[in-house]
Every structure is written in structure tokens, then in C-alpha cells.
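Subject line: Sequence and fold of a protein, written as C-alpha cells
Area: Proteins and the way their chains fold up in space.
Start of record: The labelled sequence and C-alpha cell lines come straight after this line.
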Amino acid sequence: GTRAMTDGTAGRGLYVYGKGKASVRRSTFEENRKVGVSVTDAGSSIELTDVVVRRTREEESSKDLGDGIEATVGGKLVATRLLVEDNLTYGIGCFNAGSSVSLTDVTVRRTEARVKDQKWGVGLMVQESASADLVRVTLDDNRTDGVFGADKATITGTDVVVRRTRAELSSQSGGLGLRAELGSKLTLTRTLLDKNREAGVL
């Protein structure tokens, strides 16, 4: 995996920004720091096909994050046949207006709490007017929320499975399959919610 800089910051496996574009096939991003795969800025995009992102660790200096994949500030991610497992904080995070993730045949599992405060562990987090489109996506054995849409997020999905969401480690509360709040819109077709701890949908 990628090492942190000498001041303990950074360590991403793949970082695309400033209207950059990347297409990656049949690759594994493993044991990087802060974020495994990151796309940021409007006009930037990443396409992943047959990719694994696993065991991303926290940023050394801040003890924060450890996300598997992140799309922010207008960045776009398109992924097909993707496995995201054993990361911290968010398996996949999508933040800010204009940012989007499109996921087909994707599994996100065993996301754990962030190191600095033992919070989160969400499978898919979509926030701040960002959007996500899911087709044949499974979120399994994550913490706090399987799928969480907040602050006017838009999430659509077909053939989605959310199962075995566990409590947040710090509070021992939560364990929700699907959560949408603060003006977010969640539209799902043919969805299985199975063995989530606190509620299937909130």
C-alpha cells in the first residue's frame, strides 16, 4: 500500500483531481492510507472494472478516515464488478453537489469504525446533494448504516441487498439498513433488507 508522507498525511492508493480521468481494470488497491480510491473536482472521473479495494487504514496524522472509495466536490465514479471490503469510516462515500457514484454488480462489506472516535462504519454514505445509482449492489456486515443519504442526497437502486448492519461501535446504537434524512430521496426497486440491528428503513 501507499505510505503516508513524512508529516503523516495522505497515502491514497489512487487520487484523481483537477479534471483528471482514470480507467482501471483488473486491479487491487490494498492497505493504503486515508482513502483507497479518491476522485475530486468537477470534470474529474474514475471508471473501475473488476477492481478490489480493501483494508484502507486511517490517515496516520489525524487518525481519521480510512475510506475505501470517495467521490467529492463534483467528482464522478463509475464502477462495475467491484469489491470494497474491510475499510474504515465509509466503504464508499459520495459528498457535495455534482458528485456521483454509479455502481453495478458491487459488494461493500465489513466497513469498520474510524480510529479516532470509533464512529461510523457506513457501507454507502451519500451527502450534501450528491447522488448514487445502484444496480445489483450488496451491502453486508457494515456498521451504523448500510446506506445513508443525508442533506438532500439522491439514491436510486434496483436489486439491492442490505443485510447484517451492526451497531456503531462508540455508541452501540444504530444498525440501520437504509436511512434517508434532511431532504434526501431514496428510491429502490426489488430490495432485500435482512437481519439489520435497529431497523430496516428509517
